[in-house]
Design a protein that fits this description.
The chain is an alpha+beta fold. The protein contains 8 helices and 10 strands. The chain has 2 domains: about 1-165, no CATH class; about 165-240.
Length: about 250
């Protein structure tokens, strides 16, 4: 029996989610980035809250379909990761486990088809949020479709045990830490930029992108955020930080 503790693997899962987010940005260019501009701060909070509900609801639907008993829970991991989860009380075959795990991805075409700032934001957040589901999926596939899975919400048990090269986990953990560090740094910079927009009462334009739009007369929420440029800035910043501060451990001879 192989036990995967998601709390211990949170940086690895963040790395997987980051790669998923990068891949999910590609269809946005294909559809012409329609309606990506101008999501209000409150709208972002609403989109995030709605996504948390919808994401777990997709898991729950297939628990009902397969007749699994389940319970809901949430936990804040490392003070910054708010994690909602579904704990399934029945052992599952690998095939059923894969369907339950990957079910939130079925929301992505719907989010794209609606083409408005809120559903696009939910699309991007869901792309990142499925990191844990995708990581568990990869482990199950490594064990084989004859494997048995027990999903305890914050950890899963897989039998027979999968074989995951340590270098893969290390690379994903490094990516996850880099992305989170970049987000924290970007949040700090954004705070200064928001203050500038509100006090100067004009848009913030960088490299031709309108990053923050000023909306007169809205007080504290006097700005809109363009989603796609923010994502691109995060990815660019992450790459730069990774290049300059990463020090790989020497390989054992």
């Amino acid at each position: 029996m192989y036990v995967v503790d998601f709390e211990e693997k949170i940086w690895v899962i963040t790395g997987v989610g980051s790669l998923s987010l990068i891949l999910h940005t590609l269809p946005l260019f294909y559809v012409g980035c329609i309606d990506l501009r101008g999501i209000h701060l409150i709208g972002f909070i609403v989109a995030l809250s709605s996504l948390l509900v919808l994401h777990e609801f997709m898991h729950i639907i297939f628990c009902y379909v397969y007749g699994f008993r389940f319970s809901l829970g949430y936990k804040v991991i490392k003070t910054i990761f708010l994690t909602a989860y579904v704990e399934i009380h029945n052992p599952m075959s690998a095939r059923k486990a894969l369907v339950v795990l990957l079910s939130p991805l079925a929301l992505q075409p719907l989010f794209l088809a609606l083409r408005n700032p809120y559903t696009t934001t939910m699309y991007l957040l869901n792309a990142f949020g499925v990191g844990g589901d995708i990581y568990a999926t990869l482990l199950i596939l490594k064990s084989g479709l004859d494997a048995t899975v027990l999903d305890r919400g914050l950890y899963i048990e897989i039998n027979p045990p999968p074989t995951i090269p340590e270098a893969v986990d290390s690379s994903l953990e490094w990516l996850g830490r880099t992305i989170v560090f970049s987000l924290v740094l970007l949040a700090a910079i954004s705070g200064v930029l928001f203050l500038y927009v509100v006090t100067a009462q004009k848009d913030l334009v960088i490299w031709g992108f309108t990053i923050i739009r000023y909306q007169r007369g809205r007080g504290l929420f006097s700005f809109y955020i363009d989603v796609l440029p923010i994502v691109l800035l995060v990815l660019t910043l992450s790459s730069v930080i990774s290049f300059f501060i990463t020090r790989r451990k020497p390989r054992a001879s």
